[in-house]
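U., I forgot to send this yesterday:
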Amino acid sequence: MSQALPVSVHKMNGTYQKCRHEDAEKGQFVFDEGYPEPPRELNNDYAAMVVWEEIRTIMEASKIYTQADAEKLARYCVLTAEFRATLAGFPVSKLNPLRSLEKDLYLCPTARAKLGVKQKEPENAFDKFK
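Result:
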């Protein structure tokens, strides 16, 4: 059974239909703008904070994360930091949770494809003269 996509994802995909999604949009919470702040516990883990900042650099412009995603992002950061630290000895049992978090956070190509993310067009120097 598939989960219903949020209205914001439908808008990003270009599949938003007022007749189908308007009611769902009215009942949605409005979150604060900006990238979520890391949970307090994460501040004590330098390697996980490095991963947090890497993700912030890459994903902040997309504006798909809110403070509600902070805990899930933190779990991903901790697992990724552990993976990097113990590359050869990383437990296989932790790979599926890591892969699941990547999909949930749109960090893998197949998940981003579902969002309908387009590649940025290269800037044409002559466009400003049009």
